[in-house]
Protein: Transcription repressor NiaR
Organism: Lachnospira pectinoschiza
Amino acid sequence: MNGEDRRKGIVDILKKSDKPMSGEALARKFDVSRQVIVQDIALIRAKNIDIYSTNRGYVISAKNEEFSRVFKVYHTDDDVETELNAIVDLGGWVKDIFVYHRVYGVLKADMNIHSRRDIKEYMEEIKSGKSTLLMHITSGYHYHTIVASDEKTLEYIWDELQRLGFIAKLQDYEPVDFWSKEETTI
């Protein structure tokens, strides 16, 4: 069995399981080491499949159907918290942030901001001076993948970000399908 087939098997097992599966149990099932399973889990997560590690093993997110949309936005550093609060207050969550740089292409980072507490922790990290906002690479222009339980919620979020003046227009040089080319995760 090759690695891709094994990873598909791991996802299938976790989807069907009603309890956490330990790395050891998965390793025995696929006749590989536990370290191979740890590496497989990392590769699966890189494909945006939510697998969580618990003290009793791995579980896959049992999400209800989710809808997502990419929003291109522009604002100043002072508006970051306002933007994120608007999204979570209306029932969405911020999956990621990415920029489209003419030289480097798409640079992306996961955010996974679901609540005001997540926003507070994020802002504290940024203000600590250890890192800078990714949007600085492109003079404030950036994109978020916003996730919500329905399209109507995404529309509310779009309308609010538009009202706040944060929605930016796509330019001719920007690709419409950002994920058709290889992306760079930072």
